[in-house]
């Protein structure tokens, strides 16, 4: 069966994964009322089946589920070589301690929202994530570009290219590269500050940076740790407009 994907003019398609039927129904109805299209699943296995039929724009995922839990599901999805391996994921969980947040970010989630939560906050976080979804490659031609280690990244479009080939990034990875693209040292506290969060989670930044380093592989050494200060991306040249880069090449 071929997968269906919504066109650009259609509302985003969100997959809600939660074993609690009541919560699943409430979330689905609320998101539909906000203008989104929604599919739902009661388990990781059911979510996997949904993803074999649809290419969704975002996954809202509960961490505590029977069978394969949310963290294991995220880790498996991120490890796959598929169009959905970098699908944005917002994790919902009753766990609020730091250990669970770090585990979620290490698995590859884009954002975290603890239960109970205000529906309006959920919508704002979803909107924030969707705004940062990868832009079409053609947008890179008009965007500012940071070049480093054979890679080109546009903070405006969130697109990372190795040569002409796009490198899949999660929303959080795009945020981190965007913050570092100027080539300046950026503190862990600044990198930990996220839209909608009242507190900074500096420990999670170290986990996220380590994951980003693995993602860009041979350029991993270019994200330098500046002891006592934060992180810095070593650029080939100062951040410039793409047209300027081509003119001087």
UniProtKB/TrEMBL annotation:
**From the UniProt annotation, which stretches of this protein bind DNA?**
143-235
What SUPFAM superfamilies does the entry give? C-terminal effector domain of the bipartite response regulators, CheY-like
Q: Which InterPro entries match?
A: CheY-like_superfamily, OmpR/PhoB-type_DNA-bd, Sig_transdc_resp-reg_C-effctor, Sig_transdc_resp-reg_receiver, WalR-like, WH-like_DNA-bd_sf
What domain of life is recorded for the organism?
Answer: Bacteria
Question: Which residues does the record list as 4-aspartylphosphate (modified residue)?
Answer: 62
Biological-process GO terms, alphabetical: regulation of DNA-templated transcription
Keyword Nucleotide-binding assigned to the entry: answer is: no
Q: Spell out the GO cellular component terms annotated for this protein, sorted alphabetically and separated by semicolons.
A: cytosol; protein-DNA complex
Keywords in alphabetical order: DNA-binding, Phosphoprotein, Transcription, Transcription regulation, Two-component regulatory system
**Is Zinc-finger among this UniProt entry's keywords?**
no
Q: Which GO terms describe its molecular function?
A: phosphorelay response regulator activity; transcription cis-regulatory region binding
Give the OmpR/PhoB-type domain ranges. Answer: 143-235
Response regulatory domain segment(s): 13-130
Q: What is this protein's record name?
A: DNA-binding response regulator
């Amino acid at each position: 069966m071929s997968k269906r994907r919504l066109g650009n003019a259609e509302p985003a398609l969100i997959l809600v994964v939660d074993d609690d039927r009541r919560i699943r129904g409430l979330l689905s109805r609320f998101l539909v009322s906000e203008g989104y299209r929604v599919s739902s699943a009661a388990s990781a296995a059911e979510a996997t089946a949904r993803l074999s039929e649809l290419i969704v724009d975002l996954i809202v995922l509960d961490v505590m589920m029977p069978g394969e839990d949310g963290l294991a599901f995220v880790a498996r999805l991120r490890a796959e070589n598929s169009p959905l391996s970098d699908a944005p994921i917002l994790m919902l969980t009753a766990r609020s301690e730091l250990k669970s947040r770090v585990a979620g970010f290490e698995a590859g989630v884009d954002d975290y929202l603890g239960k109970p939560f205000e529906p309006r906050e959920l919508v704002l976080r979803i909107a924030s994530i969707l705004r940062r979804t990868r832009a079409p490659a053609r947008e890179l031609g008009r965007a500012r570009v940071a070049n480093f280690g054979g890679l080109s990244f546009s903070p405006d479009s969130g697109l990372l290219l190795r040569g002409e080939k796009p490198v899949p990034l999660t929303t959080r990875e795009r945020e981190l590269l965007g913050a570092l693209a100027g080539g300046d040292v950026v503190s862990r506290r600044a990198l930990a500050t996220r839209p909608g969060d009242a507190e900074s989670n500096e420990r999670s930044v170290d986990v996220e940076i380590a994951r980003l380093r693995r993602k860009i592989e041979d350029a991993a050494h270019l994200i330098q740790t500046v002891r006592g200060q934060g992180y810095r991306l070593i650029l080939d040249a100062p951040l410039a407009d793409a047209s300027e880069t081509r003119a001087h090449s």
